[in-house]
Amino acid sequence: MAEYYNYIKSLHLIFVITWFAGLFYMPRLFIYHIESKDKPKAAADALASQFRIMERRLWNIITWPSAVLCTLTALMLLHIMPDWLYQPWMWVKLGFVVLLIVYHLVMHLMYLEFQREAYKYTSQYMRIWNEGATMILFAVVFLAILKNAIDWIYGLVGMVVLAALIMLGIKVYKMVREREEADS
Question: Which residues 6+ apart lie within 8 Å of 146 measured at CB?
C-alpha cells in the first residue's frame, strides 16, 4: 500500500479542495437565496426555485461526495502512516477536522431548511458563517505543512487576527454596499 501513498495523498488533496469549494460556495448561495426574498414575488419565487436547484446539486453532487472521499483517503493515509498518530500535531489537526465535520453537518441542517424555504438566517449571519470554513482551512493547512503542534499557540493568535480582519472586511463591505444602494 505504501507504493500508492503519493497517489492517495494526491486524491486526498483534490477531495479536500473540492470539499472546501462546496463549503465556501454554499453559504454564498444561501446569501443570494436570502436576498432574493427582497425582490417582487414572481422574481423571488423564480429565484428561490433556481437557488434550491443549485444548492441541491452543489451539496449532493460535489460537497457530500468530496467530504466522504476526503475522509476515506485520509483514513487510507493514516493506515499507511500510522506513526502520525503518535505526533501531537496530528491530534491537533484531527481536532480541527472534527470541527470541520461538525461545521459540515450544521451546514447540512441549514441546507435542509433552505430546501424547505424555512430558514431563519440573515445574509449578514451567513457572511460571518462562511468564514468558519476559512478559519478551519487555515488551521489544517498550517498544521499539515508545519507538522508542529507547539506552534499552534502562534497559529491560534494568527487565526484570531485573521478572524478580526475578516470581520472588519465584512463590516467594510456592508458599509460600501449600503452606500452604493443609497446612491442608486
Answer: 89
